[in-house]
Amino acid sequence: MRLIYFSVLALGLFVNNAWAENGSMRVKISQGVIEPLTFAVPMFEAENIEAAAIATEISRIVATDLISSGLFREIPANRFIAQRTTFAEAVRYPDWRAINAQALVTASVRTTNTGRLTVKFRIFDIFSGVQLGSGIQLGGSTQAVRRMAHKVADQVYERITGEGPYFDSKIVFVSESGPKDKRLKRLAIMDFDGKNVQFLTGNENIVMAPRISTDGKQVLYTSWESGFPQIYLLNVRTAGRKRLPTPDSGMAFSPRFSPDRKRIVYSFEQGGNSDIYLMDLATARSARMTSSPSIDTAPSFSPDGRQIVFESDRSGSQQIYTMPVAGDAPKRISFGNGRYATPVWSPRGDLIAFTKQGNGRFSIGVMRTDGSEERLLSASFLDEGPTWSPNGRVIMFARETQGPKGAPSLYSVDITGRNLSPLNLGSPASDPSWGPVQP
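^ thats the sequence. predicted structure below, dont judge the formating
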């Protein structure tokens, strides 16, 4: 059992105004089954008529974000005893305790005729009868209501759980359409919850394995537009792109950025042999990292940029290896029954997520960086391609259904394996890559 104390400080987007008393909240979180914390979000107050619809929308998005984490359970409004009319009024703690609310979020919303939006909110520990820290004020544009709501939810989530935020983040993925045997694919980007989908490429070429940079501004991906796989670098804001100069007479694929975005690692296949290469983006020069008569592929950097993890069949079957970027012999870390693929280092540095095939099924799992404490989080006909949330608590992956009409879709699961959820995009999707929390 892990005991966490939470201290809440004033923090805001663009503008911070603090008010009210300081406080703390004590929450127990176990590594096994976690009982969701009960919370209430009364409809946010609209300070002017024009803000009414926006206030309603923000309050609902905040509640939905928190619920989606699996750590929170909302108390429905029809159970409320206290009926708040203004943001300024005092909290009647006994009324909220009576319905077993552990946390309360109140807020007010104001808009201006110049398109500005201001949200003020407070978080309360109901059982202790105190406000958690100081009130928070965020400012932004009325054209970015969903972003504002995600920012509010991130603040609530961070202060109550002690975990880093992840709601206000973007995910790059491959959007698919058409029949299974003639599937069209193009790169797209969306909010963490599947909203605000925007396409980054056309669907005239086969694209795969996009990887977003640590600042969310660039994407690496593999394209078959020349007839064989090559690596491209795309600017998210402008959608401008360029092919990276990899060695001639071979196929380049599976690229991924270093944490500082100055280098990339990728796979290069020539003559039936695939090795890992390291490219300096400033000079476009590549250096070979592995030289084994085997298939070495799917490299991923550690958060400090000093090591990589990759898959290789050098032992006779697909397994996971780590090696220092500075050079040293690769070390095998996977020893379970089955084949391992697509390893990716957690942003926390403590875990490696992977795809595992065994007993006729594919699973998403995690292990320590030395290969210990392996745990499988999902299993189906085909689960593959994990990607980490910015706080290292949630993993998104692609799940494909069986049969001639089978299609991929995106799922998320937390690192306990207890909160497996589909992302309802309405069309096939694969190869997710989770970006950072937006500034």
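Residues 1-24, 26-30 have pLDDT under 50 and may be disordered.
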